UniProtKB/TrEMBL annotation:
GO terms for biological process: proteolysis. Residues 6-136 form the Retropepsin-like aspartic endopeptidase domain. InterPro entries: Asp_endopeptidase (IPR008503), Peptidase_aspartic_dom_sf (IPR021109). GO terms for molecular function: peptidase activity. This is ATP-dependent zinc protease. SUPFAM superfamilies: Acid proteases. Keywords: Hydrolase, Protease. The keyword Hydrolase applies. The keyword Nucleotide-binding does not apply.
Length: 139
């Protein structure tokens, strides 16, 4: 089976969170996907509420709420460990839609508001590190 190719960065949608578009870095070095979340709250033991700023250099915030499925220790690229909330949410990438697991973390100093990790891509895509936006440009 020939898998479709992704570039090293792609525009994705997270309709379950009300996020129409967010630029994601396709990161095969990251096991789990991550999204930039601020003001993370726990309205109940199994729910998490948070704000997402989907576009860098924009003050637009989208408030999201989801079921908390886990909390995990995650090491970032600098070796720092952080306990992060984990949620499931639908992802749309090009013509495809499926459920992914995402950790919530502050990514203020990062160029990308989202990392798309390898478990979300497994058996779905190959990554062309020389290409960008193979699934389409920002709408």
């Amino acid at each position: 089976m020939v898998l479709p190719a992704l570039g090293w960065r792609e525009w994705v949608s997270l309709p379950g969170l009300g996020i129409r578009q967010i630029k994601a870095k396709v990161d095969t070095g990251a096991r789990t996907s991550a999204i930039h979340a601020v003001r993370i709250e726990r309205p109940s033991p199994k729910r998490v509420r948070f704000a997402v700023r989907p576009l860098q250099k924009s003050t637009e915030e989208i408030w999201c709420e989801a079921e908390l499925i886990d909390e995990r220790w995650v090491s970032d690229s600098g070796g720092h460990r952080e306990l992060r909330p984990v949620i499931h949410t639908p992802l749309i990438l090009g013509p495809h839609r499926w459920q992914i697991e995402v950790t919530l973390t502050a990514r203020d100093n990062m160029l990308f508001r989202m990392l798309l990790g390898r478990t979300a891509l497994e058996d779905r895509y190959v990554v062309d590190p020389a290409a960008s936006f193979l699934m389409g440009k920002r709408k």
